[in-house]
Amino acid sequence: MRKVGAARAALANLFFAGLGYVYLGRLSLAVLVLLFSVSAAAVAGWSGFVFEPAVVYALLVLLLGLGLFTVVHAVVVARRHRELRAKPYNRWWFYALWIVAWWFLPDVLMKYRSSLFGFEPFRAASASMAPTIERGDFVMTDSRYFGRHKPTPGQLAVFRLPRNEDVLYIKRIVGLPGDVIEIRKDVLYRNGEAVDEPYIELARPGHSEDFGPITTPDGSYFLLGDNRHNSLDSRMFGAIPERLLHARVEHRWFAFEPGDGIRWERFPEQLSDRTE
Questions:
Q1: What whole-number distance in Å separates Cα of residue 89 and Cα of residue 2?
Q2: pLDDT score, position 220
Q3: Any catalytic annotation for residue 171?
Q4: Catalytic residue among 37, 114, 143, 171
């Protein structure tokens, strides 16, 4: 028999989900917590529910609630059973393995969540897509969308930069393969016809820019930032091959910028419907 402490069990569950249950000899509960945490994100992504802002909030509340429950429950179990029989896994090396696993598991899931679960959140680091997406906005993306559907003009896309595929940008698709793209006095023309773009922002009033005409290559797409005077986009690095289109932006679910704090008026908002 061994004495167990409520504080130890609670802190273990707080910092390394399930570890408190391992300490208390409840390995099945520890594994259950681990599986539930992963499966909740997986089901939300595979079902497509995560592309609704309300589901994102519900998922966050669910996971926070689960974490709080495990902490409280660990205290209850420890106080009811001051002494417990040691299990074969109640060894320092098993605790160490559990901690190491929890150090690496979130990194693995974060790195491969787009391919494993089909969704990926991003935080806008610049104002190149303002006012649609401003610096500090958190958006949810569907990383399997372009594998199932052809891109269409007006969609917001996350893509890999051709010259450095480790870098991801968010811009708006404005040109399909074969489209002739031109900008005259800040008005976008596609195949000779002016495109109505109520979502763009011109950072320098009174200053107009021209570009093109240029024909979008086969198998590629032309993307521009909504903040048209302050955006590094296809005008500079060229059209984006379809294979580099990573995900479609679905919605904004949070907005926070240091100095401004939480910007409640910025979320939630569905963005996938903002097409031409």
A1: 13
A2: 97
A3: yes
A4: 171
